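Worked example 4.2. Below are the chains of a multi-component assembly; read each line carefully before continuing.
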Amino acid sequence: MIYRETGQFRTSYAEDQAIFRLRQDRAGIAVILAVAWIGIPLLADDYLLRAILVPFLILAVAAIGLNLLLGYCGQISLGTGAFMAIGAYAAYNLALRLPGLPLLLDFFLAGLVAAGIGVLFGLPSVRIKGLYLAVATLAAQFFADWAFLRVGWFTNYTPSGSVTAPPLDIFGWLIDTPLEKYWLCLAFACLTAILAKNLVRSRIGRSWMAIRDMDIAAEIIGIRPTTAKLSAFAVSSFVAGGAGVLWAFVHLGSWEPLAFSIDMSFRLLFMVIIGGMGSILGSFLGAAFITVLPIFLNQAPAMVGIQLSTAMVSHLEFMIFGALIVLFLIWEPHGLARLWQIGKEKMRLWPFPY
Amino acid sequence: MLAAATAPAQAPTAQRRRAIGEVLLAVENISLRFGGVRALSGVSFDIRKGEIRAIIGPNGAGKSSMLNVINGFYHPQEGRIVWKGEARPRMRPHEAAKGGIARTFQNIALFKGMSTLDNIMTGRILKMRASFLEQAFWIGRGRSEELRERAFVERIIDFLEIQHIRHTPVGKLPYGLQKRVEFARALAMEPELLLLDEPMAGMNLEEKEDMCRFILDVNEEFGTTVALIEHDMSVVMDISDRVVVLDYGRLLADGTPDQVRNDPAVIEAYLGVAHG
Amino acid sequence: MAELGPVLEVLLGGLMSGVLYSLVALGFVLIFKASGVFNFAQGAMVLFAALSLVRLAEWLPFPLALLVTVLIMIAVAWTVERLVLRPLVGQHGLILFMATIGVTFFLDGFGQTIWGSNVYQLDLGIPSTPWFLFESLFPGGILVSPVDVFATVIAGSLVLALSIFFHGTRIGRALRAVADDHQAAQSVGIPLNQIWLIVWSTAGIVALVAGMAWGSKLGVQFSLSLVALKALPVLILGGLTSIPGAIVGGLVVGAGEKLAELYIGPLIGGGIEYWFAYVLALAVLLVRPQGLFGEKIIERV
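Applying the procedure described above to all three chains together yields the following C-alpha cells:
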C-alpha cells in the first residue's frame, strides 16, 4: 500500500481534526495495536515482557507526563522521579491504611495526591521562569528522596526501608504473570496516550503551548498564566504519579526510595528530549530508545567478541546519552518523532520528491 | 485578484459611513515612569465606539507604552483607564482580554511552534467552556466546541485569505503573513476594541494595501473599534477618523486627520522628519 | 556558655564547606554573566579537573601535572563552547540548559572512561590531623580541619583575584560590557568569541580549584560531580549574576544546613543537609525571585 493522501478528501472539520487523518495512518496504528495486544503476547517470552516491555510501557507513560509539562507547556522539571515516588508511596499507604479499597481507585487517588503535590512545587513557576524552576523541581526531588527514606510513617516503619506492594487484584482478576502485567501496562499506556492527545488538541493544550511559545502573547488573548502552568503541573504530576504506581506495584513489586532517585528524573528528561518535545509519539520512541540502549550496550560488544566491564558500559551509556542530547538539541529539537514525521513526508512524495 | 484587493484601500475615506458612538475607552491623565525615565506624562484622550483611532508620533514618543497601559501590561503611576464607563485599576492583560480588548504587537507575538490554525484557535480560548474531562475524553462540549470554533476560525481564515497556510507552523511564514496571522488571532477574539501596534511595519506596498482593506472591512462589517499605531502617514490620514499625536510622552495634538495635519505644533515636531 | 564551643565548631565547619559551595557556584556565575548560559556542567568540569589532576600526578611531578590539567581544562572549556554552545546561540535558555545537562553526562562518562572510576586520594601535602583552636576559651577547643582552612584560603584568594580581574583589567571591563549587552558590546568592537573563550577557560580553572579543594576533602570520585547540585541553590540564593552573591549564598547554605542539622535534625530524623539548601532557595525564590544580590529582572514588552 502506497503512503499517499491522494483521493482522500476531508469534507468536514471533524475529519480534518481527527488524530489520524490518513487512511494509511489509521491502518498503521491498527496494525501496531494488533501487534501490541495480540502479536507480542503470542510471541514474546517472559524475559522480554518482564525486563523490557513492561518497563518500557511504564516509562513511556511517565515520559508522556513530563512531556506534557516540558514539551507542551515549556516548564522544565528535574523532579519527575519525585512525583513518581509520591504516586508509589501514596498508593502503598492508601492500600495499607484503607484495606478493601479497590486497586484502580487506589491508583487514581495516588495520582491525585501526586497532582496536588505537583501543584505545590509548581507554584514557584508562577513567579519564576526556566532555570529557576529547575531548582524548584530539584527541591521536590531531594525532599521526596529524604522524606521516603527518613520519615518512617511513609514506609510503615519497615526496618529495611523497603516496602512491598499488595497483590494486584483488579475486580477479582489477580494479575501475577508477566503477560498479565504487560496487558495491564499496555492498557494504561494506551489510555494515557489517548487522553494526553485529546488534551493537547483541546483548549487546555493550546493554552499550554501558548504559554510555552510566548507567555506575554498568551496573556493578551486571555490565558491566565497561573492557571495554565499549574494545570500543566497537575496533569503532568498525575500522570507521573500513576506511572510511579505502576513502576512500584507492577514492575518492581517491592522497592526502596532509591528506585525513584534523580537518576530516574534525568532518564525521563532524556526520553523526552531524544523522543521529541511536544509529541506523544515521541514519548514512546524516547522511552523505547532509553530502555533498549543499555541492553544493547551490554550485549552488542560481547557479540563481536569485545568484553567490557560493567563500569565501562555504564560510562559509555553516560557518554552516548550526553552526546545524543546535545546532538538532538542542536539538529532536531523535536527528536525522533520529528525524524519519523520527516520520513513520512518523504514517503508521501516518493518516488517523485518534487 | 490582487488588483481587486488593492482597490478599496485607495478609495477615499469620505465614502465610508459608519456610526461613531459614545466613549468606549477613556485615557485620563496617564503618567508612566520607568525608574527615572518618564515614558508618558499626563496623557488624556478617548476612543469612541466604532471609530478608527490612530496614535502617531516620532520614535520614543510613548506610543507602544500607551497601548501597554491600555491593555494592562504596564500600570501607570498616575491617571486611570476607564473602560466602558468603569475605571479598571491594575487590570492584568488577561482581564483586558476578557473585557473585550485584543491587540497585536510591533514585533510579532505569535506562538511560533504552533500552526496558523492553532494560533488563531487560541483566540477563541475565552469562548470555550468545556470541562477538563470533556476535553480529555473528547466528548460533549470537548468535541462540539472544537468543531464550532473551528468553523468560526475558518471564516476568519477565508476573510484574510490565508487558507493555504492553515497547517503551516507560523515560525516558517514570511513576515507579512505572520502579521496577518497575528491580526487573525486578534480578530478571533471578537474584540470590541482592537489595538494594532504598527500593523503595516515592514510590509511592501501590496501587503499594506491588503492590510488597510482588512482593517477597514473589520471596522465596517463588525463595527469593531480600532486603535492603531502607524508610521506611514498616508495610511493614517486615509483610514483613521481621529488622530492622537504624542511627542516625548506628552499629548501634542488630538483631532481629525485634517486638524492634526494643519496643527502648528505637529508640523514643528515633524519638520525635517518628512513623514508621508 | 558550655555549649557555645560545639556550636561555634559546627558553624565554622559549615562556613568552610560553604566556601567550597561558593567555589562551584562561582564557575556558574562567571559563565552565566558573560554568555547567559546556565552551565549545569560546571560540576562535571569539577570532577573532570580533579580526576585529570590526580591521575596525572601519579606519573608527573605535581606542578607539571597541575599545569597540564590547566591546559586540559582550557581545552575542555573551549570544546564545549565551540561544539555545543556556539551552534545553539540565540536559542531559548531552556534549550541551552538542557544541552549543558547533556554535556554533564558526556563529561562524567568520558572522564571516568579515560581516568578510571575508583576513589583517588588527592594529597596536597596538608596535614590531616585536625587543629584545636581557642583551647583557652572553650573546654577542648574548637576542632578545625586543615584541609578546610586550606580550601577557604584558596577560595578566598580566587575570589579576590577574580574581582581584580573583573574590575581592574581591560579584559574584565570587556567582560562586564558583554554581560550587560551582547550586541552593544559587539558594536563597540569587543570580540565576543574571544571573550567567551576566556570566560569558559576561567570557569574551567575555577572548576579545577574547586576540584582540588573538594577532592582533598572527600577524595576524587564520581560524587564530586554531584557537588554541582549543591551549588544550584547557592546560586539561586545569591542571584545568578552576582559574584558576591555566590560567596554569601555559599556561606549561608553551608552554615545554615549544619546548624539546621544540629537544631532541627534530631526532631525530624536527621539528614536535613540533603534538602535544606533547596528548600531555603525555594523560599527565597518565592519572596525575591532574583535572589539576594541579583539584579531585578525588568520585563520589557
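Take a moment to check your reading of the output against the notes. Chain B has eleven helices and ten strands. The beta strands of chain B are 23-34, 37-48, 52-56, 78-83, 86-87, 101-104, 193-197, 225-229, 242-247, 250-255.
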